[in-house]
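Let us work through a complete example step by step.
Step 1: write down the sequence.
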Amino acid sequence: MLASLNRNIERLALLFFYTMLVATMAVEVVRREVFAYSSIWGEEIVRYAFIYLVWIGAASAVRERAHIRIDVIFNYVGPRTKAVLYIFGDLVMLAIAVISIWWSLENVSVSWKFGSVSHGLRLSMVWFFAAVPIGFSLLVFRLIQSLIRDIADFRTGSSLYEGARLFD
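Step 2: predict the structure and record it as tokens.
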């Protein structure tokens, strides 16, 4: 069950937020065009669903090694050098993610301290500001998995997981 959850957790979360985004946007378009009425809560749901969608998608892209990258140099180096470059890139991204978690928690704590709420949904802004540290935490988790996989591949000398290529 954990292996299935590990493979599909981002996919399920992305499906949930994408469905929420599209359904809310469709309802708001009908309300605006047919009934000449729109709501502020619909815009907020779409905005915050999109924010969560982006951060969860970033973690999923790390898992699948699908981030946009310039990988021309990888065609000219051996598998061990390629592994070192991937490990270096993951370590840099890990450092940036940890720093980003630290800094983004300040917004969450300030919102928690002062009890700010959104205008339309009247929900605590903590839920929306938390998208950044949650997204970076998922990113850290996937980076650690990637580092473990790459280090194991480096030690055994086996071929490295490179993810899918957009253009070949």
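Step 3: interpret the result. The longest helix spans residues 79-114.
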